[in-house]
Amino acid sequence: MKRSDKADRIGEILDRLYPEPPIPLDHRNPYTLLVAVALSAQTTDKKVNQVTPALFDRASTPEEMAALDPDEILGLIREVGLAPTKARNLSTMAHQIVDAGGELIPTFEFLESLAGVGHKTAGVVMAASFGVPAFPVDTHIQRLAARWGLSNGTTVERTESDLKAVFPRETWNRRHLQIIYFGREHCPARRHDLTTCPICSWTATKKRIAQEAQG
């Protein structure tokens, strides 16, 4: 089966399971979404959502965040992974945004110029807050794309390119969220029997199924 045919069928399944997938990170505006996504690196969304209410009560705008001492930010986000680095980045990021006028500029170039913001984080904000077609790929989406035979990319950048090639542009913003939810509910990283998965069972190669059964 061609990748494009697989993608069409996968898209039908995902649309049926998750017709309107919500953003899993709680936020109040585009800026707080940017902060939440930046905090989610090497940390679960659940943990981020436990930490951000108190943080956003203190600072839900770049101006408010810039007014906080980095140590105060650290105290509010201490439970997330890499907290010291992220606290410094949030402070620097806030000052960068204030210096640029106080609002997020809806371009990848601007967002990726901010401290602690990579292409994936920028993509989430561009898609969710500004409606720009984007396909943010993290290691979880990369794993499923490989299982499903949609990409053999060894980098998230290559996987993103492969997925953009097989899914229609108008589906990208919901498709990446659908894949995240599908992975959590049906396609975990470990101890997953691919033969019982609604998608892996017919997309994965026999070699892949055998390899994961041994793992």
From TrEMBL:
Residue ranges of domain HhH-GPD in the record: 39-185
CC cofactor note: Binds 1 [4Fe-4S] cluster.
Keywords in alphabetical order: 4Fe-4S, DNA damage, DNA repair, DNA-binding, Endonuclease, Glycosidase, Hydrolase, Iron, Iron-sulfur, Lyase, Metal-binding, Nuclease
EC number(s) stated in the UniProt entry for this protein: 4.2.99.18
Name of the protein: Endonuclease III
PANTHER family, sorted: A/G-SPECIFIC ADENINE GLYCOSYLASE/ENDONUCLEASE III, ENDONUCLEASE III
UniProt-listed InterPro entries: DNA_glycosylase, HhH-GPD_domain, HhH_base_excis_C, Nth
SMART domains: ENDO3c
Role, per record: DNA repair enzyme that has both DNA N-glycosylase activity and AP-lyase activity. The DNA N-glycosylase activity releases various damaged pyrimidines from DNA by cleaving the N-glycosidic bond, leaving an AP (apurinic/apyrimidinic) site. The AP-lyase activity cleaves the phosphodiester bond 3' to the AP site by a beta-elimination, leaving a 3'-terminal unsaturated sugar and a product with a terminal 5'-phosphate.
Organism: Candidatus Neomicrothrix parvicella RN1
GO molecular function: 4 iron, 4 sulfur cluster binding; class I DNA-(apurinic or apyrimidinic site) endonuclease activity; DNA binding; DNA N-glycosylase activity; metal ion binding
Reaction catalysis annotation: 2'-deoxyribonucleotide-(2'-deoxyribose 5'-phosphate)-2'-deoxyribonucleotide-DNA = a 3'-end 2'-deoxyribonucleotide-(2,3-dehydro-2,3-deoxyribose 5'-phosphate)-DNA + a 5'-end 5'-phospho-2'-deoxyribonucleoside-DNA + H(+)
A single BP term in Gene Ontology: base-excision repair, AP site formation
Family: Belongs to the Nth/MutY family.
Gene: nth
Essential cofactor(s): [4Fe-4S] cluster
Protein origin, superkingdom: Bacteria
